[in-house]
Protein backbone atom coordinates (compact mmCIF):
# COMPACT_ATOMS: atom_id res chain seq x y z
CA UNK A 1 0.00 0.00 0.00
CA UNK A 2 2.75 2.46 0.95
CA UNK A 3 4.82 1.29 -1.98
CA UNK A 4 2.35 2.99 -4.32
CA UNK A 5 3.85 6.38 -3.50
CA UNK A 6 5.48 7.46 -6.75
CA UNK A 7 6.95 10.70 -5.42
CA UNK A 8 10.46 10.79 -6.78
CA UNK A 9 10.41 7.17 -7.86
CA UNK A 10 12.98 6.01 -10.37
CA UNK A 11 12.07 3.52 -13.09
CA UNK A 12 15.25 1.90 -14.36
CA UNK A 13 15.67 1.71 -18.10
CA UNK A 14 18.10 2.26 -20.94
CA UNK A 15 16.66 4.95 -23.17
CA UNK A 16 18.09 8.21 -24.47
CA UNK A 17 16.40 9.97 -21.56
CA UNK A 18 18.04 7.62 -19.07
CA UNK A 19 21.47 8.05 -20.61
CA UNK A 20 21.44 11.85 -20.65
CA UNK A 21 23.70 13.66 -18.22
CA UNK A 22 21.65 14.56 -15.12
CA UNK A 23 22.79 18.18 -15.47
CA UNK A 24 21.27 18.30 -18.94
CA UNK A 25 18.00 17.01 -17.61
CA UNK A 26 17.97 19.43 -14.68
CA UNK A 27 18.66 22.40 -16.95
CA UNK A 28 16.14 21.14 -19.49
CA UNK A 29 13.51 20.96 -16.75
CA UNK A 30 14.32 24.53 -15.74
CA UNK A 31 13.83 25.66 -19.37
CA UNK A 32 10.66 23.61 -19.56
CA UNK A 33 9.25 25.27 -16.42
CA UNK A 34 10.15 28.76 -17.67
CA UNK A 35 8.42 27.97 -20.95
CA UNK A 36 5.28 26.68 -19.24
CA UNK A 37 4.93 29.84 -17.21
CA UNK A 38 5.32 31.95 -20.34
CA UNK A 39 2.57 30.17 -22.24
CA UNK A 40 -0.36 32.38 -23.20
CA UNK A 41 -1.72 30.97 -26.42
CA UNK A 42 -3.25 27.66 -27.33
CA UNK A 43 -0.35 27.09 -29.71
CA UNK A 44 2.15 27.47 -26.90
CA UNK A 45 0.31 25.01 -24.66
CA UNK A 46 0.03 22.59 -27.55
CA UNK A 47 3.77 22.78 -28.22
CA UNK A 48 4.54 22.09 -24.55
CA UNK A 49 2.14 19.14 -24.38
CA UNK A 50 3.68 17.73 -27.54
CA UNK A 51 7.19 18.15 -26.09
CA UNK A 52 6.12 16.29 -22.96
CA UNK A 53 4.47 13.52 -24.98
CA UNK A 54 7.58 13.03 -27.12
CA UNK A 55 9.84 13.08 -24.06
CA UNK A 56 7.62 10.51 -22.34
CA UNK A 57 7.65 8.37 -25.47
CA UNK A 58 11.44 8.48 -25.68
CA UNK A 59 11.71 7.59 -21.95
CA UNK A 60 9.32 4.66 -22.45
CA UNK A 61 7.24 5.83 -19.48
CA UNK A 62 3.61 4.85 -19.90
CA UNK A 63 0.94 7.52 -19.72
CA UNK A 64 -0.62 5.60 -16.84
CA UNK A 65 2.57 5.73 -14.76
CA UNK A 66 3.00 9.40 -15.60
CA UNK A 67 -0.51 10.39 -14.57
CA UNK A 68 -0.35 8.29 -11.43
CA UNK A 69 2.11 10.90 -10.20
CA UNK A 70 -0.69 13.46 -10.34
CA UNK A 71 -2.77 11.72 -7.70
CA UNK A 72 -1.22 13.47 -4.67
CA UNK A 73 -1.81 16.92 -6.21
CA UNK A 74 -5.28 16.19 -7.54
CA UNK A 75 -6.78 18.18 -4.69
CA UNK A 76 -4.68 21.27 -5.43
CA UNK A 77 -5.55 21.05 -9.12
CA UNK A 78 -9.28 20.86 -8.41
CA UNK A 79 -9.03 23.63 -5.84
CA UNK A 80 -7.29 26.09 -8.19
CA UNK A 81 -9.63 25.19 -11.01
CA UNK A 82 -12.71 25.88 -8.89
CA UNK A 83 -11.34 29.14 -7.48
CA UNK A 84 -10.40 30.46 -10.91
CA UNK A 85 -13.65 29.33 -12.44
CA UNK A 86 -15.89 31.22 -10.02
CA UNK A 87 -13.84 34.20 -8.89
CA UNK A 88 -12.45 35.71 -12.08
CA UNK A 89 -14.28 38.89 -13.07
CA UNK A 90 -15.33 39.35 -16.70
CA UNK A 91 -18.04 38.49 -19.18
CA UNK A 92 -20.71 36.34 -17.56
CA UNK A 93 -21.44 33.01 -19.22
CA UNK A 94 -23.66 31.33 -16.69
CA UNK A 95 -25.04 32.09 -13.19
CA UNK A 96 -26.70 29.98 -10.56
CA UNK A 97 -27.48 31.19 -7.01
CA UNK A 98 -24.26 32.97 -5.88
CA UNK A 99 -22.08 31.21 -8.40
CA UNK A 100 -21.05 33.02 -11.54
CA UNK A 101 -18.91 31.60 -14.32
CA UNK A 102 -17.17 34.04 -16.64
CA UNK A 103 -15.50 33.46 -19.98
CA UNK A 104 -12.20 34.69 -18.53
CA UNK A 105 -12.66 32.41 -15.51
CA UNK A 106 -13.20 29.39 -17.71
CA UNK A 107 -10.05 30.15 -19.71
CA UNK A 108 -7.92 30.81 -16.62
CA UNK A 109 -9.14 27.62 -14.96
CA UNK A 110 -8.34 25.52 -18.02
CA UNK A 111 -4.94 27.22 -18.38
CA UNK A 112 -4.09 26.61 -14.71
CA UNK A 113 -5.06 22.96 -14.84
CA UNK A 114 -2.99 22.45 -17.99
CA UNK A 115 -0.05 24.30 -16.48
CA UNK A 116 0.00 22.33 -13.24
CA UNK A 117 -0.49 19.04 -15.04
CA UNK A 118 2.34 19.76 -17.49
CA UNK A 119 4.55 21.01 -14.68
CA UNK A 120 4.08 18.00 -12.41
CA UNK A 121 4.24 15.35 -15.13
CA UNK A 122 7.27 17.03 -16.68
CA UNK A 123 9.23 17.05 -13.44
CA UNK A 124 8.08 13.50 -12.71
CA UNK A 125 9.61 12.48 -15.99
CA UNK A 126 12.93 13.72 -14.60
CA UNK A 127 12.71 11.56 -11.48
CA UNK A 128 11.34 8.60 -13.43
CA UNK A 129 14.41 8.53 -15.66
CA UNK A 130 17.15 9.69 -13.27
CA UNK A 131 18.28 7.72 -10.24
CA UNK A 132 18.41 9.80 -7.03
CA UNK A 133 22.17 9.38 -6.84
CA UNK A 134 22.71 10.80 -10.32
CA UNK A 135 20.24 13.55 -9.63
CA UNK A 136 22.10 14.79 -6.57
CA UNK A 137 25.38 14.37 -8.42
CA UNK A 138 24.09 16.65 -11.12
CA UNK A 139 22.73 19.12 -8.61
CA UNK A 140 26.00 19.24 -6.74
CA UNK A 141 27.92 19.85 -9.92
CA UNK A 142 25.53 22.59 -11.07
CA UNK A 143 25.63 24.35 -7.71
CA UNK A 144 29.43 24.04 -7.36
CA UNK A 145 30.01 27.76 -8.10
CA UNK A 146 28.16 28.56 -4.86
CA UNK A 147 31.00 26.97 -2.92
CA UNK A 148 32.87 30.23 -3.45
CA UNK A 149 30.16 31.89 -1.37
CA UNK A 150 30.74 29.31 1.37
CA UNK A 151 27.50 27.48 0.71
CA UNK A 152 28.10 23.86 1.88
CA UNK A 153 27.06 22.42 -1.49
CA UNK A 154 28.68 19.03 -1.01
CA UNK A 155 27.18 18.54 2.44
CA UNK A 156 23.73 19.53 1.22
CA UNK A 157 24.02 17.12 -1.71
CA UNK A 158 25.20 14.36 0.62
CA UNK A 159 22.29 14.99 2.98
CA UNK A 160 19.92 14.91 0.07
CA UNK A 161 21.27 11.67 -1.36
CA UNK A 162 21.18 10.02 2.08
CA UNK A 163 17.62 11.17 2.61
CA UNK A 164 16.58 9.93 -0.83
CA UNK A 165 18.45 6.69 -0.33
CA UNK A 166 16.59 6.00 2.89
CA UNK A 167 13.06 6.77 1.73
CA UNK A 168 12.49 3.26 0.30
CA UNK A 169 14.23 1.70 3.30
CA UNK A 170 11.99 3.53 5.73
CA UNK A 171 8.89 2.74 3.69
CA UNK A 172 9.83 -0.92 3.74
CA UNK A 173 10.47 -0.71 7.47
CA UNK A 174 7.12 0.97 8.02
CA UNK A 175 5.43 -1.79 6.07
CA UNK A 176 7.18 -4.42 8.14
CA UNK A 177 6.36 -2.87 11.51
CA UNK A 178 2.78 -2.29 10.39
CA UNK A 179 2.45 -5.96 9.45
CA UNK A 180 3.99 -7.03 12.75
CA UNK A 181 1.55 -4.90 14.75
CA UNK A 182 -1.37 -5.99 12.58
CA UNK A 183 -0.38 -9.56 13.38
CA UNK A 184 -1.00 -8.61 17.02
CA UNK A 185 -4.41 -7.22 16.15
CA UNK A 186 -3.51 -3.54 15.71
CA UNK A 187 -6.13 -1.74 13.68
CA UNK A 188 -4.92 1.20 11.57
CA UNK A 189 -7.97 1.52 9.39
CA UNK A 190 -11.02 2.12 11.54
CA UNK A 191 -12.21 4.46 14.26
CA UNK A 192 -12.29 8.23 14.60
CA UNK A 193 -9.41 10.65 14.20
CA UNK A 194 -8.16 10.37 17.78
CA UNK A 195 -8.34 6.59 17.74
CA UNK A 196 -6.46 6.47 14.48
CA UNK A 197 -3.81 8.84 15.75
CA UNK A 198 -3.40 6.70 18.86
CA UNK A 199 -3.18 3.57 16.73
CA UNK A 200 -0.08 5.07 15.11
CA UNK A 201 1.97 4.98 18.34
CA UNK A 202 2.88 1.28 17.95
CA UNK A 203 4.07 2.17 14.46
CA UNK A 204 5.89 5.44 15.09
CA UNK A 205 7.87 4.51 18.21
CA UNK A 206 9.66 1.54 16.60
CA UNK A 207 10.09 3.51 13.37
CA UNK A 208 11.82 6.42 15.11
CA UNK A 209 14.01 4.11 17.12
CA UNK A 210 15.11 2.26 14.03
CA UNK A 211 15.69 5.51 12.11
CA UNK A 212 18.01 6.75 14.86
CA UNK A 213 19.75 3.39 14.99
CA UNK A 214 20.29 3.45 11.24
CA UNK A 215 21.59 7.01 11.31
CA UNK A 216 24.04 6.04 14.02
CA UNK A 217 25.23 2.97 12.13
CA UNK A 218 25.58 4.92 8.89
CA UNK A 219 27.62 7.65 10.60
CA UNK A 220 29.95 5.06 12.10
CA UNK A 221 30.30 3.26 8.77
CA UNK A 222 31.10 6.51 6.98
CA UNK A 223 33.67 7.50 9.57
CA UNK A 224 35.28 4.06 9.36
CA UNK A 225 35.83 4.78 5.70
CA UNK A 226 37.40 8.14 6.53
CA UNK A 227 34.62 10.34 5.22
CA UNK A 228 35.38 13.94 6.06
CA UNK A 229 33.27 16.02 3.72
CA UNK A 230 33.81 17.09 0.14
CA UNK A 231 37.38 18.43 0.40
CA UNK A 232 39.59 16.75 -2.19
CA UNK A 233 37.01 14.06 -2.89
CA UNK A 234 36.99 12.45 -6.34
CA UNK A 235 34.09 10.75 -8.05
CA UNK A 236 33.63 7.19 -9.25
CA UNK A 237 31.30 8.31 -12.01
CA UNK A 238 32.53 11.57 -13.48
CA UNK A 239 29.81 13.42 -15.35
CA UNK A 240 30.43 14.01 -19.07
CA UNK A 241 28.55 16.12 -21.54
CA UNK A 242 28.08 14.19 -24.79
CA UNK A 243 26.82 15.39 -28.15
CA UNK A 244 23.28 14.30 -27.25
CA UNK A 245 23.42 16.49 -24.15
CA UNK A 246 24.29 19.58 -26.19
CA UNK A 247 21.55 18.75 -28.67
CA UNK A 248 18.86 18.26 -26.02
CA UNK A 249 19.95 21.34 -24.13
CA UNK A 250 19.97 23.45 -27.29
CA UNK A 251 16.46 22.23 -28.11
CA UNK A 252 15.10 23.21 -24.71
CA UNK A 253 16.81 26.62 -24.68
CA UNK A 254 15.38 27.38 -28.13
CA UNK A 255 11.98 26.11 -27.00
CA UNK A 256 11.99 28.32 -23.89
CA UNK A 257 13.23 31.35 -25.82
CA UNK A 258 10.61 30.86 -28.53
CA UNK A 259 7.75 30.49 -26.06
CA UNK A 260 8.89 33.50 -24.00
CA UNK A 261 9.13 35.60 -27.17
CA UNK A 262 6.05 34.37 -29.03
CA UNK A 263 3.76 32.60 -26.56
CA UNK B 1 -4.45 -36.35 11.03
CA UNK B 2 -6.61 -33.29 10.84
CA UNK B 3 -5.55 -30.33 8.74
CA UNK B 4 -5.73 -27.02 10.60
CA UNK B 5 -4.35 -24.92 7.74
CA UNK B 6 -4.55 -25.83 4.10
CA UNK B 7 -2.97 -23.71 1.39
CA UNK B 8 -4.29 -24.43 -2.07
CA UNK B 9 -2.49 -23.34 -5.23
CA UNK B 10 -1.33 -20.11 -3.70
CA UNK B 11 0.16 -17.50 -6.01
CA UNK B 12 1.31 -14.09 -4.93
CA UNK B 13 2.63 -11.45 -7.30
CA UNK B 14 4.23 -8.24 -6.07
CA UNK B 15 4.09 -4.94 -7.95
CA UNK B 16 1.44 -5.87 -10.51
CA UNK B 17 1.59 -3.43 -13.41
CA UNK B 18 5.03 -1.95 -12.68
CA UNK B 19 8.44 -2.87 -14.12
CA UNK B 20 9.13 -4.54 -10.76
CA UNK B 21 6.41 -7.20 -11.16
CA UNK B 22 7.56 -10.51 -9.69
CA UNK B 23 5.92 -13.66 -8.35
CA UNK B 24 7.27 -14.66 -4.95
CA UNK B 25 5.02 -17.70 -4.62
CA UNK B 26 3.59 -19.63 -7.55
CA UNK B 27 1.00 -22.37 -7.29
CA UNK B 28 2.13 -23.48 -3.83
CA UNK B 29 0.15 -26.03 -1.83
CA UNK B 30 0.76 -26.90 1.79
CA UNK B 31 -0.99 -28.58 4.70
CA UNK B 32 -0.40 -27.93 8.37
CA UNK B 33 -1.79 -30.62 10.69
CA UNK B 34 -3.23 -29.90 14.11
CA UNK B 35 -0.74 -30.29 16.93
CA UNK B 36 2.39 -30.80 14.85
CA UNK B 37 5.66 -28.89 14.90
CA UNK B 38 6.18 -28.20 11.25
CA UNK B 39 9.54 -27.08 9.95
CA UNK B 40 9.47 -24.84 6.89
CA UNK B 41 12.76 -24.58 5.12
CA UNK B 42 14.05 -22.82 2.03
CA UNK B 43 16.58 -20.40 0.67
CA UNK B 44 16.34 -16.65 0.85
CA UNK B 45 13.88 -15.82 -1.90
CA UNK B 46 12.16 -19.20 -1.82
CA UNK B 47 8.92 -17.49 -0.83
CA UNK B 48 8.92 -18.45 2.86
CA UNK B 49 8.17 -14.99 4.19
CA UNK B 50 5.51 -14.34 1.59
CA UNK B 51 3.86 -17.68 2.30
CA UNK B 52 3.62 -17.20 6.05
CA UNK B 53 2.10 -13.74 5.69
CA UNK B 54 -0.76 -15.45 3.89
CA UNK B 55 -1.38 -17.82 6.78
CA UNK B 56 -2.78 -15.06 8.98
CA UNK B 57 -4.20 -12.89 6.22
CA UNK B 58 -1.60 -10.11 6.17
CA UNK B 59 -1.29 -10.66 2.46
CA UNK B 60 -4.15 -11.53 0.18
CA UNK B 61 -3.49 -14.23 -2.42
CA UNK B 62 -3.29 -13.13 -6.05
CA UNK B 63 -4.70 -16.58 -6.80
CA UNK B 64 -5.50 -19.64 -4.70
CA UNK B 65 -6.98 -20.06 -1.22
CA UNK B 66 -5.92 -20.35 2.38
CA UNK B 67 -8.22 -22.47 4.54
CA UNK B 68 -8.25 -22.34 8.33
CA UNK B 69 -10.26 -25.22 9.80
CA UNK B 70 -11.76 -25.73 6.36
CA UNK B 71 -12.93 -22.12 6.07
CA UNK B 72 -11.52 -19.73 3.47
CA UNK B 73 -9.97 -16.97 5.61
CA UNK B 74 -10.95 -14.35 3.03
CA UNK B 75 -14.60 -15.48 2.94
CA UNK B 76 -15.42 -12.51 5.17
CA UNK B 77 -12.67 -9.90 4.81
CA UNK B 78 -14.09 -7.92 7.75
CA UNK B 79 -13.28 -10.78 10.11
CA UNK B 80 -9.65 -11.10 9.06
CA UNK B 81 -8.57 -9.74 12.45
CA UNK B 82 -9.99 -12.83 14.15
CA UNK B 83 -7.80 -14.96 11.88
CA UNK B 84 -4.76 -13.04 13.12
CA UNK B 85 -5.63 -13.91 16.71
CA UNK B 86 -5.99 -17.58 15.80
CA UNK B 87 -2.78 -17.77 13.76
CA UNK B 88 -0.06 -15.91 15.66
CA UNK B 89 2.80 -14.74 13.50
CA UNK B 90 6.22 -13.80 14.87
CA UNK B 91 8.20 -11.91 12.26
CA UNK B 92 11.92 -12.03 11.64
CA UNK B 93 13.79 -9.83 14.10
CA UNK B 94 10.58 -9.17 16.02
CA UNK B 95 12.40 -7.07 18.63
CA UNK B 96 12.13 -4.07 16.28
CA UNK B 97 8.39 -3.93 16.79
CA UNK B 98 8.52 -3.23 20.55
CA UNK B 99 7.09 0.13 21.52
CA UNK B 100 5.56 0.13 25.01
CA UNK B 101 6.95 1.58 28.22
CA UNK B 102 7.33 -1.78 29.91
CA UNK B 103 7.85 -5.31 28.66
CA UNK B 104 4.63 -6.31 30.44
CA UNK B 105 2.53 -3.78 28.55
CA UNK B 106 4.12 -4.73 25.26
CA UNK B 107 3.26 -8.38 25.76
CA UNK B 108 -0.27 -7.29 26.72
CA UNK B 109 -0.73 -5.37 23.43
CA UNK B 110 -2.07 -8.38 21.47
CA UNK B 111 -4.46 -9.75 24.11
CA UNK B 112 -5.69 -6.19 24.84
CA UNK B 113 -6.55 -5.83 21.17
CA UNK B 114 -8.57 -9.03 21.57
CA UNK B 115 -10.60 -7.22 24.23
CA UNK B 116 -9.14 -8.97 27.26
CA UNK B 117 -8.44 -7.27 30.58
CA UNK B 118 -8.01 -7.90 34.29
CA UNK B 119 -7.04 -11.31 35.62
CA UNK B 120 -7.24 -13.15 32.30
CA UNK B 121 -4.90 -10.61 30.73
CA UNK B 122 -2.46 -10.84 33.62
CA UNK B 123 -2.46 -14.64 33.50
CA UNK B 124 -1.81 -14.66 29.77
CA UNK B 125 1.04 -12.17 29.98
CA UNK B 126 2.75 -14.11 32.77
CA UNK B 127 2.19 -17.48 31.06
CA UNK B 128 3.54 -16.15 27.78
CA UNK B 129 6.62 -14.68 29.46
CA UNK B 130 7.29 -18.05 31.08
CA UNK B 131 6.90 -19.90 27.77
CA UNK B 132 9.26 -17.48 26.05
CA UNK B 133 11.78 -17.96 28.85
CA UNK B 134 11.55 -14.41 30.13
CA UNK B 135 12.36 -13.69 33.75
CA UNK B 136 9.38 -12.25 35.70
CA UNK B 137 11.59 -9.48 37.09
CA UNK B 138 12.18 -8.11 33.60
CA UNK B 139 8.48 -7.53 32.98
CA UNK B 140 8.45 -4.09 34.61
CA UNK B 141 11.51 -2.84 32.76
CA UNK B 142 11.47 -0.78 29.59
CA UNK B 143 11.96 -3.14 26.66
CA UNK B 144 14.61 -0.80 25.27
CA UNK B 145 16.93 -1.39 28.23
CA UNK B 146 16.92 -5.17 27.71
CA UNK B 147 19.53 -7.17 25.81
CA UNK B 148 18.90 -8.31 22.25
CA UNK B 149 17.97 -11.85 23.26
CA UNK B 150 15.64 -10.63 26.01
CA UNK B 151 13.95 -8.20 23.63
CA UNK B 152 13.29 -11.04 21.23
CA UNK B 153 11.71 -13.08 24.01
CA UNK B 154 9.44 -10.17 24.88
CA UNK B 155 8.36 -9.97 21.24
CA UNK B 156 7.71 -13.71 21.01
CA UNK B 157 5.79 -13.64 24.29
CA UNK B 158 3.69 -10.83 22.80
CA UNK B 159 2.37 -13.27 20.20
CA UNK B 160 2.12 -16.31 22.48
CA UNK B 161 -0.01 -14.20 24.86
CA UNK B 162 -2.79 -14.17 22.26
CA UNK B 163 -2.89 -17.96 22.75
CA UNK B 164 -3.14 -18.66 19.04
CA UNK B 165 -4.10 -22.10 17.78
CA UNK B 166 -1.18 -21.95 15.39
CA UNK B 167 2.08 -20.21 16.23
CA UNK B 168 4.21 -19.29 13.22
CA UNK B 169 7.79 -18.18 13.85
CA UNK B 170 9.94 -16.73 11.07
CA UNK B 171 13.61 -17.41 11.80
CA UNK B 172 13.17 -16.97 15.56
CA UNK B 173 16.82 -17.70 16.29
CA UNK B 174 18.43 -15.51 13.62
CA UNK B 175 21.24 -13.35 14.95
CA UNK B 176 21.45 -15.02 18.37
CA UNK B 177 24.57 -16.71 19.66
CA UNK B 178 24.59 -20.55 19.66
CA UNK B 179 23.55 -20.80 23.29
CA UNK B 180 20.79 -18.24 22.90
CA UNK B 181 19.54 -20.14 19.86
CA UNK B 182 19.35 -23.43 21.63
CA UNK B 183 17.66 -21.97 24.71
CA UNK B 184 15.07 -20.20 22.64
CA UNK B 185 14.28 -23.24 20.53
CA UNK B 186 14.07 -25.42 23.63
CA UNK B 187 11.51 -22.99 25.04
CA UNK B 188 9.51 -23.17 21.84
CA UNK B 189 9.61 -26.95 21.93
CA UNK B 190 8.50 -26.95 25.57
CA UNK B 191 5.64 -24.61 24.66
CA UNK B 192 4.63 -26.96 21.87
CA UNK B 193 4.70 -30.01 24.14
CA UNK B 194 2.93 -28.41 27.08
CA UNK B 195 0.21 -26.68 25.09
CA UNK B 196 -0.09 -29.24 22.31
CA UNK B 197 -0.62 -26.34 19.94
CA UNK B 198 0.45 -26.30 16.34
CA UNK B 199 3.79 -24.60 15.68
CA UNK B 200 5.29 -23.68 12.32
CA UNK B 201 9.01 -23.02 12.53
CA UNK B 202 10.59 -21.26 9.57
CA UNK B 203 14.33 -21.48 9.22
CA UNK B 204 17.09 -21.79 6.70
CA UNK B 205 19.19 -23.83 9.11
CA UNK B 206 18.86 -27.52 8.35
CA UNK B 207 20.40 -28.47 11.69
CA UNK B 208 17.76 -26.55 13.56
CA UNK B 209 14.84 -27.89 11.58
CA UNK B 210 16.18 -31.46 11.71
CA UNK B 211 16.44 -31.27 15.46
CA UNK B 212 13.08 -29.76 16.33
CA UNK B 213 10.52 -30.46 13.62
CA UNK B 214 8.11 -33.43 13.45
CA UNK B 215 7.65 -32.87 9.76
CA UNK B 216 9.50 -30.78 7.19
CA UNK B 217 8.33 -28.91 4.13
CA UNK B 218 11.03 -27.77 1.73
CA UNK B 219 10.36 -24.72 -0.44
CA UNK B 220 12.30 -23.74 -3.52
CA UNK B 221 11.63 -20.99 -6.04
CA UNK B 222 8.11 -20.28 -4.79
CA UNK B 223 6.97 -23.91 -4.80
CA UNK B 224 6.87 -26.89 -2.46
CA UNK B 225 9.82 -29.09 -3.36
CA UNK B 226 9.21 -31.95 -0.91
CA UNK B 227 7.63 -32.72 2.43
CA UNK B 228 7.78 -35.51 4.97
CA UNK B 229 9.41 -36.57 8.23
CA UNK B 230 13.02 -35.45 8.70
CA UNK B 231 14.06 -39.00 7.84
CA UNK B 232 12.14 -39.01 4.59
CA UNK B 233 13.40 -35.60 3.57
CA UNK B 234 17.04 -36.19 4.41
CA UNK B 235 17.07 -39.57 2.68
CA UNK B 236 16.72 -37.45 -0.46
CA UNK B 237 19.82 -35.51 0.52
CA UNK B 238 21.31 -35.35 -2.97
CA UNK B 239 18.11 -33.75 -4.32
CA UNK B 240 18.34 -31.11 -1.60
CA UNK B 241 21.93 -30.39 -2.53
CA UNK B 242 20.94 -30.11 -6.18
CA UNK B 243 18.26 -27.57 -5.22
CA UNK B 244 21.04 -25.52 -3.65
CA UNK B 245 20.08 -26.37 -0.06
CA UNK B 246 22.20 -27.62 2.72
CA UNK B 247 21.79 -30.92 4.53
CA UNK B 248 22.70 -31.37 8.21
CA UNK B 249 26.38 -32.04 8.84
CA UNK B 250 25.66 -35.57 10.05
CA UNK B 251 23.76 -36.34 6.84
CA UNK B 252 26.62 -34.96 4.79
CA UNK B 253 29.12 -37.21 6.54
CA UNK B 254 26.87 -40.23 6.03
CA UNK B 255 26.33 -39.39 2.35
CA UNK B 256 30.06 -39.05 1.85
CA UNK B 257 30.74 -42.38 3.61
CA UNK B 258 28.12 -44.11 1.52
CA UNK B 259 29.69 -42.72 -1.63
CA UNK B 260 32.95 -44.37 -0.57
CA UNK B 261 31.26 -47.74 -0.35
CA UNK B 262 30.17 -47.99 3.27
CA UNK B 263 26.78 -49.59 3.94
CA UNK B 264 25.59 -46.75 6.14
CA UNK B 265 22.09 -45.31 6.29
CA UNK B 266 22.38 -41.90 4.56
CA UNK B 267 19.22 -40.56 6.18
CA UNK B 268 20.69 -39.95 9.64
CA UNK B 269 20.43 -36.31 10.56
CA UNK B 270 21.69 -35.82 14.11
CA UNK B 271 25.18 -36.34 15.45
CA UNK B 272 23.79 -38.88 17.93
CA UNK B 273 22.18 -40.94 15.16
CA UNK B 274 25.33 -40.83 13.12
CA UNK B 275 27.40 -42.04 16.05
CA UNK B 276 24.94 -44.88 16.67
CA UNK B 277 24.97 -45.85 12.99
CA UNK B 278 28.75 -45.89 12.91
CA UNK B 279 28.94 -47.97 16.05
CA UNK B 280 26.44 -50.45 14.65
CA UNK B 281 28.49 -50.64 11.50
CA UNK B 282 31.64 -51.32 13.46
CA UNK B 283 29.99 -54.06 15.52
CA UNK B 284 28.67 -55.65 12.36
CA UNK B 285 32.22 -55.66 10.99
CA UNK B 286 31.42 -53.22 8.21
CA UNK B 287 34.70 -51.34 8.64
The amount of beta strand of chain A, in percent, is under 5%
* Structure class of chain A: mainly alpha
Strand order of the largest sheet of chain B: 6-7-8-3-9-10
Quickly give the structural class of chain B: alpha/beta
Enter the CATH topology name of the largest domain in chain B: Rossmann fold
Walk me through this protein's architecture.
The complex is a heterodimer of chains A (263) and B (287). Chain A is 68% helix and 3% strand. Chain A is mostly helical and 263 residues long. In chain A, strands 1-2 form a two-stranded antiparallel ribbon. The longest helix of chain A is centred in the middle third of the chain and has 31 residues, at 153-183. The radius of gyration of chain A is 23 Å and the shape is flat. The two termini of chain A are 42 Å apart. Residues 1-7 of chain A have low confidence and may be disordered. A six-stranded mixed beta sheet of chain B has the order 6-7-8-3-9-10, with helices on both faces. Chain B has a four-stranded antiparallel beta sheet with strand order 2-1-4-5, with helices on one face. Chain B starts with a strand and ends with a helix. Classes of the chains: A mainly alpha (263), B alpha/beta (287). The A-B interface holds A 3, 11-13, 64-65, 176-177, 179-187, 201-202, 205-206, 209-210 and B 15, 17-19, 53, 56, 58, 81, 84-85, 88-91, 94, 96-99, 109-110, 113-114, 144, 158-159, 162.
Topology at a glance:
The complex is a heterodimer of chains A (263) and B (287).
Chain A lengths: L15 H4 L2 H17 L3 H18 L3 H6 L5 H14 L4 E5 L2 E4 H27 L2 H12 L9 H31 L9 H7 L1 H24 L18 H20 L1
Antiparallel strand pairs in A: 1-2
Helix pairs in contact in A: 2-6, 2-7, 2-11, 3-6, 5-6, 7-8, 8-10
Chain B lengths: L2 E12 L7 E12 L3 E6 L5 H8 L7 E6 L2 E2 L7 H7 E4 L12 H11 L4 H14 L16 H13 L5 E5 L7 H18 L2 E6 L2 H7 L2 E6 L2 E6 L1 H5 L2 H6 L6 H11 L11 H13 L4
Parallel strand pairs in B: 3-8, 3-9, 6-7, 7-8
Antiparallel strand pairs in B: 1-2, 1-4, 4-5, 9-10
Amino acid sequence: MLKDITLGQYFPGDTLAHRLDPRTKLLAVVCYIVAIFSCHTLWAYGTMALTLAVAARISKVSARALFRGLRPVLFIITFTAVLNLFYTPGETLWTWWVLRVTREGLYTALAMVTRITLLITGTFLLTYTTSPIRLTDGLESLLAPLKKLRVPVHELAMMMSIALRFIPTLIEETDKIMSAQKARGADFESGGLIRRAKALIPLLVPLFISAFRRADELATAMECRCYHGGEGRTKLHVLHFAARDYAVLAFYIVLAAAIVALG
Amino acid sequence: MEEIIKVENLTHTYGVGTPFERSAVEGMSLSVYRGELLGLIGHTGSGKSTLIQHLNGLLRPTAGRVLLDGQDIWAEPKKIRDVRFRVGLVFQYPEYQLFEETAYRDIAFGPTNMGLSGEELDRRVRDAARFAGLDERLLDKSPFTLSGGQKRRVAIAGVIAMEPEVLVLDEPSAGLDPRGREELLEHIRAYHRERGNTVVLVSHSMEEIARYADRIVVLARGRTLMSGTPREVFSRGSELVRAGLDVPQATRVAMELQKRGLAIDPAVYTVEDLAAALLALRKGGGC
